[in-house]
Amino acid sequence: MMLHGRLLTNVMKNKMKLSHAMCNYCGNGEETILHAMRDCPKAKVLWRCFKPMNHSAQFYTVDIFQWININLYNTIQWQGKGSWCDVWALSCHCLWSWRNKEMFEDEFVRPVYPAQHVLQMVEDYKGATTTNDIVTLKNQQISLIGWRPPKDMFVRLNTDGAYKEQVVVAVEDCYGEAKENG
Ligand SMILES: [Zn+2]
Question: Cα(115)–Cα(125) distance, rounded to whole angstroms?
Answer without folding.
Answer: 15
